[in-house]
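Lecture 7 notes. Example A: sequence first, then its structure tokens.
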Amino acid sequence: MNNNSSPVIMMDEMALVLVCKRPALGVGKQRLAVSLGMERAHQIAQALLACALEDAKNWNGPVVIAPASEEDHGWATTLLPSSMSVWTQPQTIGNLGQRLNELDSRLRYEGLKQLVYIGSDAPILAHTDYAACRAALQHYDTVLIPATDGGVVLMASCNPWPVLADLPWSTDQLGAALIGCCRSAGQSVAVLEQRSDVDELEDCLELVTLLQHDARPARRQLHALACAIAYTLRIHHVQF
């Protein structure tokens, strides 16, 4: 495993794994880019990543940053303070299921046992969600927080994931398929309250309301960006 600062980690600690892409023009959030243009989509991607990193900074335990490729290893090592227990483990090739299986296998090989996976597109996740996940993982093998669009925004387990390659990734059937896959593998599964993620223009505009009272700094910046986008669309009489 690649690490930033050779942290001393108790392997029975619960680790947060941030699976992310390096924000770049024309990379990621392409559905938003169709509606808002590449520059705005890039700004949103950066703001969303900042929210996920905000959660990582507040995580009570080790953190793993899993960038999309080995080329982004150096970038990933700069995302969090060196004083934290942060490891960097780039993803391999394949679809998301294959990459998660390989990543999970590598982390467990290093001795980590309780792994909580998040992406960078669910800024609504709050301390209460992470606390609920921690509590549930003491009684269940696997804990999932479903997304309102049928996907998932958090997936945690004390056990290796079953084969995920054939699941319907990036569809509204993913959440149900993942639950079924884990249960078929003999794992007990806790499904927590669903949360929204940001993939479409409508998701971005909902942040105006959803983050209205969120005091976390990165969320305030994302809220301001969502408000600016909503205002621009209104003055141009864009229907949404």
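Example B, a different protein, same format:
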Amino acid sequence: ESLCWVIDGSNLQRLMGLLASQLEPEKRLRLGTFVADPSAEAVADGDRLFQRHAALLGSTGSGKSWAVALILERAKSLAHPNLVVFDMHGEYTPLTEGDAPIARAFHIAGPGQAPDDEHALYLPWWLLNQEEMQALLLDRSEENAPNQAARLSHHVRALKHERLVADGKTELAARFTVDSPVPYDLTGLVRLLSADDAEMVPGAAGREKQGPFFGRLTRLVSRMEARISDRRYGFMFSPPTTHLAYDWLHDFAKRLLGTAPGIKVIDFSEVPSDVLPIVVGVMARVLYEIHFWTTEDKRTPVTLVCDEAHLYLPAGNAGAADLRALDSFERIAKEGRKYGISLLVISQRPSDVSRTVLSQCNNFIALRLTNDQDQAVVKRLMPDSMDGLTAALPLLDVGEALLLGDAIILPTRIRLDAPKVKPTSATKNFWTDWNSASVEEEALVAAVEAMRTQSRR
């Protein structure tokens, strides 16, 4: 009977619904209903959606956060879901609360961090590879930048070797590289660089002369001391002493890649904006490399949910910090599928997101897009015969989306289901609130104090 249908309008939606119903039950991911036929379920192939990267794109207020919450809610029903959400604004906190939370909450430690907070995450300096460390501490425009980079690498390697020997890891001490994540003494690093900067060496006629790095590391040392003393960077330069133990990274891997519970939300909202790309990039790189080095038959697939991706995966004019994050995510986008790690890229400005990352995404959920440059990104992904669908991009209602990619049979317009637990991203009702709500002055005082401590906790 279906072969006799006129393939247009709601009949097309019914046909797609029929074909989608043939998916194996374990692959079915219900996202909502078809706009043309609300009685038909819009079902995607969950395997294909995640294994080949996906992107969720939409202007602010179009329903992106609700769509993410819906996907996490659906994943929660599985036996062992494994997703790590990079939450830039703390809007997914409600999903981690209540008697039956969807996800486990983590946050990058802020300046006012309580020492016994089990949800706090630190990224100690020794996790940074040399490119990340240099992007964080060096000014490439300086004449002495090459000397600073060389001495930084030299001393870091020496300090890591010293630590491995002291811990009895002699086999590893003979095989490690300068980028191996091995704890080392940060104070000792500053001391060695300061010594180089002030070193005097024997000269002619028994006189002393300035050493080869005399005065050339001054700015590097000053920059390091400023970073170390700045409480905003305490999550990196002032972690608890337990984070300097050799075995700490083992526990870190279990917390973020283990399956109890499988969905984790990491709140980055208190990370200073100038180092946000490096911090997110380090987190992604470390998780990817742990997964990369896991024995193949022991890997459990992991998806990194990249909220507000345009903040750290820019399409152009990338600075040194942005480039380090781009390197990490572009490597995952290109190679992650082979090792069971994928990306769900979320952005309100797809035209500002790395072309390399988006080009590796095989599935797209496009909500309302009002900017013509952002619309063009989606239109390039659609066949010419689907111009009618892309024309609707600026007209989509909140919660409506175009779904395209190999996770669904044909590009189509759907209405996403509302999640049971709503993220804290709802648009304020300005006119209604002005008519009913009043300003709570005590809340303003609390806000000022939070601003002074640079912490919401």
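Note on Example B: Residues 1-7 have pLDDT under 50 and may be disordered. The chain has two domains: 2-123+239-453, 134-220.
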